[in-house]
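User: Could you go from structure to sequence for me? I need the amino acid at each position, not a summary. C-alpha cells:
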C-alpha cells in the first residue's frame, strides 16, 4: 500500500478516535449536568417542605395548653396549670398539668377559647377578660340580709369571708351584726376583670391520642394508660380498668365521655364500655 494512503488511513483512524473521545467527554458532561440538576431539584423540594406553613389552631381542634388566670384588681390566682404558681393558692394534692381545650366546646371560658384561635404550638399570649365576658357584672339584688338563726345548722364558725350554702345557693358572708348576716350570692368572680396568660403546648392530631385526652379529662383520677381502647370501623370499645369501678360519678362520666367522643372524633358512631370482673377481685 502506498505510503500516502497509509498516512491517510492513520489520520482517519486518529480523527475517529478523537471524535469518539470528544463524544465520551460530552456524554460525561451531560450526565454530570443532569445529576447536578436532579440534586438541585431535591434540595429545592426539601426547602419547600421546610418552609411549609405552621399549624394554626381552629375551631374544633384538640389543644393542650398551660395557663394562669388571676384577678387583675388583686393579683389573686383563680386557676393555673403551673405548680410553682399555684402551690401557695390551692390545696395540697392538686394536679398541675396541661389542660385539654377544644375551641367552641366550652372546656374553658369562651373568651379564652376565642383567644386561642390562630395561635401556633409553643406560642404564648397575655390578655385581659372584662367581667361581661367572664363571670358577669355584680348584681346588687343577690346580696341578701338573713337572720342569723337560719344559719344554726351550718357547721363551724361563721365569720366575714366565710363561704356558706343556704337553700342550695352558695354565698360569701360580707358582714355580721344585730342578729343578721349579709350574704353575697353573686358568683365569687362576678364584676372582676381577669388577666390571663396562656401557652399552646401541643395540637393533638392522632385519633387515638384524642380519645385518650377525652378519657383523661372526664375520668382524671385513673391513669389513662390503664384504659384499653379498640376502634372497629365506627365503633369504639373502651375497657374500664378496675381502679375506676368505685368512682362515685363513673356512670355519669361514661355518658358524658361517650357523647364527647361521638361529637368530636370523626367517623365514630357507637361507644361500647367493657368491665371485666374475675374471681381474684372478690378474694
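Assistant: Here is the amino acid at each position, in order:
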Amino acid at each position: 500500500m502506498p505510503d500516502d494512503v497509509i498516512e491517510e488511513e492513520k489520520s482517519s483512524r486518529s480523527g475517529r478516535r478523537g471524535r469518539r473521545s470528544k463524544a465520551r467527554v460530552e456524554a460525561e458532561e451531560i450526565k454530570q449536568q443532569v445529576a447536578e440538576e436532579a440534586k438541585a431539584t431535591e434540595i429545592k423540594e426539601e426547602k419547600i417542605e421546610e418552609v411549609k406553613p405552621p399549624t394554626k389552631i381552629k375551631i374544633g381542634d384538640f389543644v393542650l395548653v398551660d395557663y394562669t388566670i388571676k384577678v387583675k384588681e388583686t393579683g389573686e390566682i383563680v386557676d393555673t396549670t403551673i405548680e410553682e404558681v399555684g402551690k401557695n393558692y390551692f390545696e395540697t394534692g392538686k394536679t398541675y398539668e396541661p389542660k385539654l381545650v377544644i375551641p367552641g366546646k366550652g372546656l374553658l371560658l369562651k373568651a379564652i377559647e376565642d383567644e386561642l384561635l390562630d395561635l401556633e404550638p409553643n406560642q404564648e399570649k397575655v390578655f385581659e377578660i372584662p367581667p361581661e365576658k367572664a363571670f358577669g357584672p355584680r348584681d346588687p339584688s343577690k346580696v341578701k340580709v338573713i337572720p342569723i338563726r337560719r344559719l344554726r345548722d351550718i357547721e363551724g364558725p361563721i365569720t366575714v369571708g366565710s363561704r356558706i350554702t343556704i337553700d342550695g345557693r352558695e354565698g360569701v358572708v360580707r358582714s355580721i351584726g344585730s342578729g343578721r348576716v349579709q350574704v353575697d350570692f353573686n358568683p365569687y368572680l362576678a364584676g372582676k376583670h381577669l388577666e390571663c396568660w396562656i401557652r399552646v403546648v401541643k395540637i393533638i392530631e392522632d385519633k387515638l391520642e384524642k380519645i385518650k385526652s377525652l378519657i383523661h379529662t372526664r375520668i382524671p383520677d385513673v391513669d389513662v394508660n390503664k384504659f384499653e381502647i379498640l376502634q372497629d370501623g365506627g365503633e369504639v370499645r373502651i375497657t374500664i380498668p378496675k381502679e375506676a369501678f368505685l368512682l362515685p360519678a363513673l356512670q355519669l362520666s361514661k355518658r358524658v365521655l361517650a357523647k364527647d367522643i361521638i361529637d368530636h372524633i370523626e367517623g365514630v358512631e357507637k361507644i361500647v364500655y367493657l368491665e371485666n370482673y374475675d374471681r381474684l377481685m372478690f378474694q
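One structural detail worth keeping in mind: The longest strand covers residues 194-204.
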